[in-house]
Amino acid sequence: MLGEYRIAGRRAAEISADIERAVGSxxxxxxxxxxxxxxxxxxxxxxxxxxxxxxxxLRERGVIETAGRRGSRVRPRPATTGRERVRADVPxxxxxxxxxxxxxxxLPSLARAFALAAEQGxxxxxxxxxxxxxxxxxxxxxxxxxxxxxxxxxxxxxxxSLDAVERVLAAHLKPGDTVAVEDPGWGSLLDLIPSLGLRxxxxxxxxxxxLPDDVRAALESGVRALIVTDRAQNPTGAVVTAARxxxxxxxxxRHPETLLIExxxxxxxxxLPLHPLAGTTRxxxxxxxxxxxxxxxxxxxxxxxxxxxLDRVRGRxxxxxGWVSRLLxxxxxRLWDDGAVDTPAVAAAYAERRSALIAALAARGITAHxxxxxxxxxxxxxETGAVSRLLHAGWAVAPGARFRIGxxxxxxxxxxxxxxxxxxxxxxxxxxxIGPAPDRSYV
Length: 443
Description:
This protein is α/β, with parallel strands linked by helices. The chain is about 40% helix and about 15% strand. An 8-stranded mixed beta sheet has the order 4-11-10-9-8-5-6-7, sandwiched between helices. The protein has a 3-stranded antiparallel beta sheet with strand order 12-15-14, with helices on one face. The two termini are about 35 Å apart. Mean pLDDT is about 95; it is low at about 80-85.
């Protein structure tokens, strides 16, 4: 079961620490089955409750997962394991369309914005005790939110979307609470939630966002939070439409104690309108990252929400990193003021690449999805086989298992850097790898 590794420890804390170190070092690998609690207790000469406590700690830390009688195993992407251990390497000579990155050619130059921000920092340095949010940045961010119909609320700044989501969840939830998430959905979010000791309730999505029947069932089951991607949903490209937003708002009004988190990471690369759900529940947060439009390394996201949520997030942030660099905030503000990203042009470029691949697949009898964003989602009958055959044909795609809980198998293709000359060869390779599937859906 564990190969040559032998778990050690007499107390629950010692046992859990030993297993966590083994996972971190690679001695215990992702997916590896752990001994049944009673069996390990006999081997270690301890009470079964001691092992149960150790396993519970590991579940809350996001290291292992338990599936009833099927036992406990190391999570596929445990929080304690370096990402490089679970990342698929792309062989030399293989075209990588799995990465999920924006097109570097469509990102703005950062040099002038940072130079001007640095000059401002020389004249007006930020010191301990200063406001955590640059006043001009807050005004500009709030104006953009107002223009898109996001309810009024304080403005905070986080180190990217995932950081913001984690802080909001931690501000309201405790280990054991359940969070409703899109399925298929953002893989990093699906990893984050269990690492916080929270449970995941999958909600299916179609091209218009989360399915109302699934959201209703999740809310009625007592989930504590719901996370929705408004546009450029990863991996499907779904966009919450006006009609879907009305239906979801009506459901949320019946459950005002539910924490609502919205992710609008597609802002500035999508020209489809935003239909926010915010304000329908007592506690809510709206997150808007700059990563896709301005560059992933900026690590900055705007966060707004109700006063209680923002106060809790800011308070905890003060006790940790303190604030997100105001030099960085000033640079992003310069980019905004300069109109550094031509949103219609960027959105059109990505739309052209998505549409071309979707049309080429449709001509071969394959249904694919991608209303917005950087990716195209292709439902497949055999995910592992499709990924393997495409790799053999010279194409690296992202396996859908990275994004799924109970949704049907699929593959994610990042089209952000896909030139027109590669569209037909890629579509043909996909068709050869999976065969025609005109009626297949990911719902």
